[in-house]
Each structure stands twice: as C-alpha cells, then as structure tokens.
Amino acid sequence: MNGESWDSMKISVIIRTYNEAEWLAFSLDSVLKQEGLDQLEIFIVDSGSSDATLLIAQSYKEFANVTILDYEGNYLPGKSLNMGVVRALKENPDFILILSAHCVIQEKNAVFEMAKALCSHANVRTVYGRQLPLEFSDPVAWRDMTHLYQSESRLIEKHPSLNNAFSLFAS
Predict the structure, then answer these.
(1) Distance separating alpha carbons of residues 111 and 71, to the nearest angstrom
(2) pLDDT exceeds 60 at position 106
(3) N-terminal to C-terminal alpha carbon distance within the chain
C-alpha cells in the first residue's frame, strides 16, 4: 500500500460501460456508499453507448471524483478495462477495483475488507466478490449469473484467472 495507514488508502475504480443506463446508477451508488474509503476515484470507460449511460455518468461528476474515458472502436471489455487501468495508474492508487456497470456491491465495507485481505496475505494478488442476480434482474441475467458463478471450486478449477465483475488488486 502506498499510503502509511488505512486512512490514506487510495482506490481507483474502473467501470466499463456499453449501454448500461439501466444499471449504472445502482453500481455507482454502491461504490459511493462504501465505508472506510476516503480517497476514491472512479473511471468510467464507455464504448460508445447509445442510451443514457453517459448522461448518468456525467451527473455523478457533480458530487464524486468521476472521470469519463471514451473507448473508440468496437466494444471489447478487456481493452476498455486496460484503458481504464492505464489511466488510473497515473494517479498512483494503492488498489484498483474492477467493477462491471451491472454489478451492485451489497455490503458497505466490502471493498475495505477486500483491501485488508490483500494486505494480510503476501501471496494473494487479487480478490474478488461473487456476483449474484438482484431481485429485479431480468431472466437472462439470472440464468447467466447462476450458471457462471456457481461454486467457487468450479470457478477456480475451470477459470483460474477469471476476472470477475467485482475484483480488487494492489497496484
């Protein structure tokens, strides 16, 4: 950790978007409600959304440290995440949180606890949270999330480098 204490912990959040107007406010609100995070910066990497995604993102700039980056070209989640990480690293964060725009953090201290886990185990480089459908998720999201994120042993066995929709790593 670059800071000398938990009070100075700096986290950069990377959220990739492509037509995520339905979910983005839920996701951003869940980040902003996190406890124990005094230095939080959010980078929204948009890949040419044609819905209200950018309007929603812009509205958060009024009261949060939000930077909107435009990824030009076809929507490629990996490339847009890389663009966000490269930009975030210029701010010298202690940790980088990768969060899908449709991922809503449920626990108010989840990110803080994830950061503590990273610092407590020298051999751990990344931690992630399991994404579950919410009560208002559509049937396709329910199917995808319950199929993709079944048991942890299945994930580790078949996808050892899985970059979940909610993961944190030290920068």
Answers:
(1) 26
(2) yes
(3) 8
Q: How is the beta sheet containing 126-128 ordered, strand by strand?
A: 66-70, 39-46, 10-17, 95-100, 166-170, 126-128
Residue by residue, DSSP assigns 21-85 as TTTHHHHHHHHHT-TT-SEEEEEEEES---SSHHHHHHHHTTTS-EEEEEPPSS--HHHHHHHHH
Place of tokens 């995070």: 37
Pairing of strands 166-170, 10-17: unpaired
Two structure tokens written together for 141: 């999201």
Q: Please report where in the chains the tokens 């929204």 appear, as a residue.
A: 44
For the entire predicted model, the pTM comes to: 0.83
Query: CA-to-CA distance for 26 and 13, rounded, in angstroms?
Result: 15
Cβ-contact 55, 66 below 8 angstroms: no
pLDDT number for residue 150: 55
Residue 157 corresponds to which tokens in the numbers above?
A: 């066995």
Which pLDDT value is given to residue 129? 77
Q: What rounded mean pLDDT belongs to the chain?
A: 83
